[in-house]
Amino acid sequence: MYDIVIIGAGVSGCAAARELSRYQARICVVDKEEDVCCGTSKANSAIVHAGHDAEPGSLMARLNLEGNRMMEELSHELDFSFRRNGSLVLCMSEDEMPALQALYERGVKNGVEGLQILTGDEVRKMEPNVTEEAVGALYAPTGGIVCPFGLTIALAENAAVNGVEFRFNTEVETIRKSEDCFELETKNGTIKTRFVVNAAGVYADKFHNMVSGTKIHITPRRGDYCLLDKTAGNLVDKTIFTLPGKYGKGILVTPTIHGNLLLGPTANDIEDKEGTNTTQAELEEVITKAQRNVKNIPMKQVITSFAGLRAHEDGHDFIIKELEDCPGFIDCAGIESPGLTSAPAIGKFVAEILRDKAQLQEKENFIAKRKGILDPKTLSKEERSELIRKNPAYGNIICRCETISEGEILDAIHRPLGAHSLDGVKRRTRAGMGRCQAGFCSPRTMDILARELEIDMREITKSGGESKIVVGLDKDRL
Fold first, then answer.
1. φ, ψ for residue 177 (rounded to 5)?
2. According to the model, what pLDDT value does residue 179 have?
3. What's the rounded Cα separation, in Å, for the pair 383 and 6?
4. Which of 42, 338, 347, 366 has the most crowded CB, counting CB atoms within 10 A?
5. pLDDT at residue 26, as a whole number
6. Cβ(320)–Cβ(15) under 8 Å?
7. Three-class HEC string of the chain
8. Bridge-partner residues for 64, per DSSP?
9. Is the peptide bond before 148 cis (omega within 30 degrees of 0)?
10. Is 49 a catalytic residue?
């Protein structure tokens, strides 16, 4: 019997787990995938939004602003990458300037600090590669960029160190409410708990509708992206948006926290909650619209494309509350953009609901800080030499594109909630994220995984489940 079970190990679920781990309670996070950050949280724009887009008075607007303000201190506490690079919302015609002014006024009403409306010349002085068609822009200095993997993994590791249990490969199939608890039927047996937090992303409506007479509906909204090599990463410094429309903030052009250039996303409502395939039409849309806003984009430097799903709820606001007709069931649903930005505040909000409802008592020994994987590239030449002398694994480079050492991969495997797949290593270290997209380092990373996990090479997967890499070979031929 758990006190609290959180369904979903994405950024919202892990943020709630981390905040709840401050209290004396038996907490478990369950997820159908093999690791944290395998759904919506792994494929998004990695933007920390300033907060001028959400409707004033909405929960989305409130938690966006609060999450933005929390992000910098949290990045120091949990040791993940974050930078306030600022953002620009471009206006491409004089006829649209009133809409830009309205966006400015909305941002002011939401409490966003430092907003300015710039002329086209002022924009190009700030960002020389913005096209001549831009007649103005809304500048938000509090906008930022973050690593979504780094943030989610940091939250999860800190929660685990503070006693939260994580159960992966554990898909929840049904939920029943009895007199004194909830019973979650999973593919790995029954889990009982006093409280449920529904942080299941695009599947949150499925679980909500199992226990509530008031139904909600979530539409998977697919967005395609193009990622460019680090040689293109300095094309712009700010995150470049266009004026938002019915389906969101449009195609953006932004540097990433690791120095790449990212273009996207599109917005296409689909039925398939697993439909993360890219399409030629949508990738062409990304390229065409990005080039309208920013010139000189070196499209030959694209190293990969991908798609992610946003959990768009019909009411277009976050749903974070205990259900009136099902006490003990807390929704954390409809978490679409700016969900990544809002995650720290979402976690705090969920924890406050349960603190009061379950009468939770704070721990005296809560561990607030976490240290991430050591990156030898941040050390001086002398410090790096000393590190390699003490541990030669840090001198054995496995991923040449990102200069990732065996020592970093070993740390990724053996730390709390360590990696068990190629993608697990990639999310934690960036081994395989470079220009060759794991063409060189995959076999070497697999060797390390097999050795450290003491498993057969044929058991290693790209991303869990049936995504095995070595098939059809006898053991003595490996």
1. -105, 120
2. 87
3. 42
4. 347
5. 98
6. no
7. CEEEEEECCCHHHHHHHHHHCCECCCEEEECCCCCCCCCHHHCCCCEECCCCCCCCCCHHHHHHHHHHHHHHHHHHHHCCCEECCCEEEEECCHHHHHHHHHHHHHHHHHCCCCCEEEEHHHHHHHCCCECCCCCEEEEECCCEEECHHHHHHHHHHHHHHCCCEEECCCCEEEEEECCCCEEEEECCEEEEEEEEEECCHHHHHHHHHHHCCCCCCEEEEEEEEEEECHHHCCCCCCEEEECCECCECCCEEEECCCCCEEEECCCEECCCCCCCCCCHHHHHHHHHHHHHHECCCCHHHEEEEEEEEEEEECCCCCEEEECCCCCCEEEEECCCCCHHHHHHHHHHHHHHHHHHHHCCCECCCCCCCCCCCCCHHHCCHHHHHHHHHHCHHHHCEEECCCCEEHHHHHHHHHCCCCCCCHHHHHHHHCCCCCCCCCCCCHHHHHHHHHHHHCCCHHHCECCCCCCECCCCCCHHHC
8. none
9. no
10. yes
Percent of the chain with pLDDT over 90: 96
Whether 243 contacts 99, CB under 8 Å: yes
Q: What is the pLDDT at residue 157? A: 98
pLDDT in the model for residue 472:
80
Query: Computed from CA positions of residues 218, 44, 106, 342, in that sequence, does the dihedral angle turn out positive or negative?
Result: positive
Dihedral sign for Cα 38, 454, 187, 158, please.
negative
The CA distance from 172 to 168, in Å, is: 11
Of how many residues is the chain composed? 478
368-415 pLDDT, tens digit each: 999 999 999 999 999 999 999 999 999 999 999 999 999 999 999 999
pLDDT at 250: 83
The stretches in the chain having pLDDT less than 50 are none
From 49, 52, 312, 420, the catalytic residue? 49
Side-chain-side CA neighbours of 308 within 13 Å: the count stands at: 21
87-125 pLDDT, tens per residue? 999 999 999 999 999 999 999 999 999 999 999 999 999
Q: What's the pLDDT score for residue 99? A: 96
